[in-house]
Amino acid sequence: MRGREANGSAIPVALVPIHTAVAGRARISVGGLTGCASTARLLERGLAVHSSVKSALASELTGNVTVLFDATTELDGILEHMAAVLRGKIVSGRLDDDHPEWHTVGSAEAAAHLKTSLSDGLSGAEAARQPPCWQELPSCRLRRAGFSKLPPSPLSSVSTA
């Protein structure tokens, strides 16, 4: 899909399928992804809004995106969608400021945002009241698994003296 015009755009995008042997799963090399965390997040969020995509994992280390999608969906449709995301034609479902990216905040900040403490955690009732959009965040896997306390920060035991 190198340099191919899509949606009237002439912005070149290099997307090279490198592993497609399993129906509904593809590993795609993305030009410009290596070393760029913001592009990885953009692709993951952009693919999340595609109705056939079940999950997407973009690696800034390898420059590849692994996409799991409905096996009846053509890979070309996924590639077109990725190109549109990279060209800014598709809004990527960015979380607003009221819903931080949980992997970027410290445990104390996350607890404060959730109106709890590190020692108490969320009650089952409070966890059930959280906004539905949180159900889709990777961090919610812990909550669904039954954990109600945040793990201590690895830096909390480090002395700054």
Question: Can you walk me through this structure?
Answer:
The chain has two domains: 15-86, Alpha-Beta Plaits; 102-144, no CATH class. It is 26% helix and 15% strand. The protein has five helices and four strands; from the N terminus they run E-E-H-E-E-H-H-H-H. It has helices at residues 37-48, 75-86, 107-113, 124-129, 140-144, and strands spanning 15-19, 25-30, 53-59, 64-69. It has a four-stranded antiparallel sheet with strand order 1-2-4-3. A hairpin with a 4-residue loop joins strand 3 and strand 4. Helix 1 crosses helix 2 (75-86). The protein is elongated. The relative contact order is 0.13.
Please provide the count of β strands.
Answer: 4
The CATH topology of the largest domain corresponds to Alpha-Beta Plaits
Low-confidence stretches: 1-8, 132-149
Q: Which H/E pattern describes the elements? A: EEHEEHHHH
Count of separate structural domains: 2
Strand order of the largest sheet: 1-2-4-3
Q: What coarse outline follows from CA principal-axis ratios?
A: elongated
**SS field, number of helical segments:** 5
Q: Could you tell me the radius of gyration in angstroms?
A: 19 Å
Structural category is alpha+beta
Profile the largest sheet: 4 strands, antiparallel
Mean pLDDT: 75
